[in-house]
Design brief:
2 copies of one chain form a homodimer. By secondary structure, chain A is an alpha/beta fold. The first copy, chain A, contains 12 helices and 18 strands. At the A-B interface, helix 2, helix 3 and helix 4 of A face helix 2, helix 3 and helix 4 of B.
Amino acid sequence: MPILVMKFGGTSVATLDRIRRAAKRVGREVANGYDVIVIVSAMAGETNKLVGFVDETGPFFDAREYDAVVSSGENVTAGLMALTLQEMDVPARSWQGWQVPLKTTSAHASARIEEIPPENIMAKFDEGMKVAVVAGFQGISPEGRITTLGRGGSDTTAVAFAAAFGAERCDIYTDVDGVYTTDPRIADKARKLDRIAFEEMLELASLGAKVLQTRSVELAMRYKVKLRVLSSFGDMDESVGTLVCDEEDIVESKVVAGVAYSRDEAKMTLISVADRPGIAAAIFGPLSEAGVNVDMIVQNISEEGRTDMTFSCPTDQVARAEKAMEEAKAKGDINFHGIIADTDVAKVSVVGIGMRSHTGVAAKMFKVLSDDGINIKVITTSEIKISVLIDRKYMELAVQALHDAFELDKVA
Amino acid sequence: MPILVMKFGGTSVATLDRIRRAAKRVGREVANGYDVIVIVSAMAGETNKLVGFVDETGPFFDAREYDAVVSSGENVTAGLMALTLQEMDVPARSWQGWQVPLKTTSAHASARIEEIPPENIMAKFDEGMKVAVVAGFQGISPEGRITTLGRGGSDTTAVAFAAAFGAERCDIYTDVDGVYTTDPRIADKARKLDRIAFEEMLELASLGAKVLQTRSVELAMRYKVKLRVLSSFGDMDESVGTLVCDEEDIVESKVVAGVAYSRDEAKMTLISVADRPGIAAAIFGPLSEAGVNVDMIVQNISEEGRTDMTFSCPTDQVARAEKAMEEAKAKGDINFHGIIADTDVAKVSVVGIGMRSHTGVAAKMFKVLSDDGINIKVITTSEIKISVLIDRKYMELAVQALHDAFELDKVA
């Protein structure tokens, strides 16, 4: 039998009624001839409740115990999903991470998956079981303790199972019906994409599109797992969602696939830094050690041996970045005249694998923004992405203008 | 180090504050020089919530999935208790049933404990861990599935651990401060007992005193585990609770230790049964097969080859008992003229190991009841117990009168 992996997030299993609706979708795929591995999250709100309990115990906690506590929500959903499927006469059983076993590193609360031996579950498929319901987000360490995979862990669990079992596809059921050209709340012309390439999805995910977690997309790309994002709320036969797939499987050939944005960016400038070899390392080494996620970097033209160094980082890391810089200055490692932090900025990006072969995307992007009087503060590019930092008040305008200019509302 | 087992029930761990109070008691025993095994229940209400979820999935459910779901409440408490102890600088870690491993039969939802290998936990004690927090009520089957132990499972877990680890004592923390001569809500002269013999506790537990679950007392008696019942709510230094122990360890020598009662009894009479050899088997065989728990049995003197057969059973089994009798009659296995079910009765019992060596307890009991005009409907006795069935309206009066007559308010 071909194998299908289906993952249901917290809102898709928030109540017994929703679990029943999800189970119906599973039952339909069984009727279609699949052996199905279902990955479930905890019922919406449960994990937060458990994290709240752990936080109440005190400020510093043993991540091993944290994992033992917060993983329990998924166990409940897995059992309930198996029971619901059985009630529909679909042979199913639940598996907790340690029962599979889903083997991980010992990095509790953010463990990495090391191995998923398929033997135990395959043996049950061979005996006639049609659905293995697996508690997402959790595994077992080499020491036999329960681990959790950190943010987005259930998506990652799903993709890892699809890879380990050679699944035909991994369907991620969520509360949106696919990946859009941009956020429909900002641009009402936003259009759902039928397909998107792994590389594009990866850029969009890391740029703030919350529909899939970055790690799960990375994993899918590495193991060539066809990933589909679709809604668990729509009509069962209408939602086809968005297929995240290999570049070669994409028929439509737009240069730009989507426009992403992030409000959560700050621009920091070190004024009049002594410009010498090794200065970048002297600045970004301490920032990295302080846990600051530096994104964009711009170095101005040097005048008389001094330069301004500008970088961006998440807004909530500004204080940490300032502290790290002042400490490096106090130690004599770097020298600057002042720090300017601008938290009133936003990042807007255009993403598309077509940019590899098409020129002129950057020029067009800059012209569109310029035509609307939007000043660009920092620019970074990758092979398939151009990001700019602009004043936050222009963010919505920039997204809409770029969406229009690249005609993303039209099918290629 | 000597080992102590401490068990905290659902109300004792209902909130983080209560978990903290329980953890303080554990910390004090560690300071007293013990290595401690803590058995925890789910936070009050959690297990019922999970059972409700399972019930919602449908009327017939796979007990293996039921166990996977309902066991998760204890896992949460175990992790939170370990975290709370760590926060108090007490080296602790949590253990789920499968991690110990607590090996059980495959009788899901009412599994029996088969073995608790102490090696894993002892190795951690040897490394300096002071407290092993174990999720109660759960274990692992030979097939590697999660099992639960059924009603009172956490008490049973605690006693089994005490036996397996040769613990000095097993302390059961609950919401009452010990075992009483009778229910204080009925007789305000009820007195807390400092000690009670296993056999007495067993009779009281099975007679409806809800402080300890029957199975846990049986287990404690078999393995000679000293069991103490005490409150987790009182002042830490005042509550000494009640010690359930071997007969030889009891100093005070009352003939009667306590008066128990049960409202949940019905009296059933089969009128004019043909009296022949094997008639008892013909009646009580079908009742047993129908799952009716027959308690007391009385057969009237036979007249002209016919007799009346009276027995008692729990009130909620009356319909089942009637059905079983009518079916047996229809098949021709038994013959009777009618069934009378009296659900307006109650059982009152006096219990005491001293009854083995003292005569006259029954006579005194019957006289006390007679003096108050209470008619006795059925009598049963064991070596250390006399039970009578009376009209329910006299129950409180009977309990109070017997408590007074046997001077249970006075220390021996």
